[in-house]
Write a structure and sequence with these properties.
Strand order of the largest sheet: 1-2-5
Distance between the termini: 21 Å
Largest sheet: 3 strands, parallel
Helix content: 25-40%
Shape: globular
Strand content: 5-15%
Number of domains: 1
Number of helices: 5
Structural class: alpha/beta
Length: 201
């Protein structure tokens, strides 16, 4: 897989996800694995005035047991879209580049996309355009068991473990005295650094 990496799908992924993508010639997104709860597949962290805030896309509970990620449907009975958009606005409306990028994110989240995989892909492609990155994205067509391949990152980026990834520091909207906060959605970087965001990957 030289020049090609394998990653999981992710909702508004963390900065390290896009750092990996930026270093690849081609990206395979896992679509055949069974859905994994409490992962970045349906959640992300943004930085609020009170610290990191978790945003989760609800999915139908009945579809969780050994169901391929490609078949996971979003649960629109919960008002998650309004909650996420309000949270993003509250956190980043005062950031330098919010007005230039929020509209595209808002449009995608406000839509009614049935499947989690499709929602994530639209957001990732939109973010790649913001970063002016041209990377070929394709889905896997069959599941390959976890391996030690250095280009297999499907289960290496997880909110359950502290990331070993050390991104460059930049000025964040909220500095509550705890220092630079890592592990946040790439939105934090884009809203704060704009066209320079790609240089921080």
């Amino acid at each position: 897989m030289e020049g090609k990496i394998l990653v999981s799908t992710a909702y508004l992924p963390p900065v390290e996800y896009f750092t990996l993508i930026s270093q690849a010639d081609e990206v395979l997104i896992e679509s055949e694995e069974n859905y994994l709860k409490q992962s970045y597949r349906n959640r992300c962290y943004i930085l609020s005035a009170h610290g990191p805030q978790l945003l989760t896309v609800p999915v139908y509970q009945g579809s969780l047991h050994k169901t391929p990620i490609k078949d996971i449907r979003i649960d629109y009975s919960k008002r998650w879209q309004q909650v996420h958009l309000r949270a993003i606005i509250s956190s980043y409306s005062s950031s330098p580049y919010f007005q230039f990028y929020f509209e595209n994110i808002e449009k995608i989240i406000s839509g009614k996309i049935d499947f989690l995989l499709d929602l994530n892909m639209e957001l990732i492609q939109s973010i790649l355009k913001m970063l002016k990155m041209e990377i070929k994205l394709t889905y896997t067509t069959y599941f390959v068991p976890v391996r030690t391949d250095e280009n297999d990152f499907r289960y290496k980026i997880t909110p359950k473990e502290k990331s070993q990834f050390l991104s460059k520091k930049y000025i964040q909207v909220f500095d509550n005295g705890t220092g630079f906060i890592r592990g946040l959605s790439v939105l934090d970087l884009i809203f704060n650094k704009g066209p320079e965001a790609v240089d921080y990957l």
